[in-house]
Amino acid sequence: MNRIESPFTPETITAALREEGLRITRTRRGIVQALFDSGRPMTLQEIQTAASAHEGAQPDYATVFRMILLLEKLHLVHRVNLQRSCSYYEISDPRKHYDHLVCRGCGQVVLIDIPCPIGDAEKKIAQQYGFRNLSHSLEFFGVCGACP
What we know:
Order of helices and strands: HHHHEEEEHE
Radius of gyration: 17 Å
CATH class of the largest domain: Mainly Alpha
Distance between the termini: 45 Å
Oligomer: single chain
Strand order of the largest sheet: 4-3-5
CATH superfamily of the largest domain: Winged helix-like DNA-binding domain superfamily/Winged helix DNA-binding domain
């Protein structure tokens, strides 16, 4: 996808999917809406369950998996490392950067709303090692104030 229109909405994503030549089915709309409404990283099973609440029909697991792979390829979803046994994904406005705080006690995940602390280092690393399109994932792990 070449360009993201402002604001970043479920309709923006469905437009990107249309640009890729895909039909916008109830299942796809449900998956996109579930990701937008979650406000947190989700597993594929959580996405599958949440999608059924939006469009009435639960997509099969393979459909959710393929859709997430496509959205990841389009840089509209990204995988979040929560140091857990399965993968977590969240919606990703390509104009923004996402870093997280993860509570080791309750599992709460908080999106860090400050400029990325290693953005400049990423640029230097890319330049020094000759990489293009470098990206990173930054998660801080600790114990939140609500946990003992």
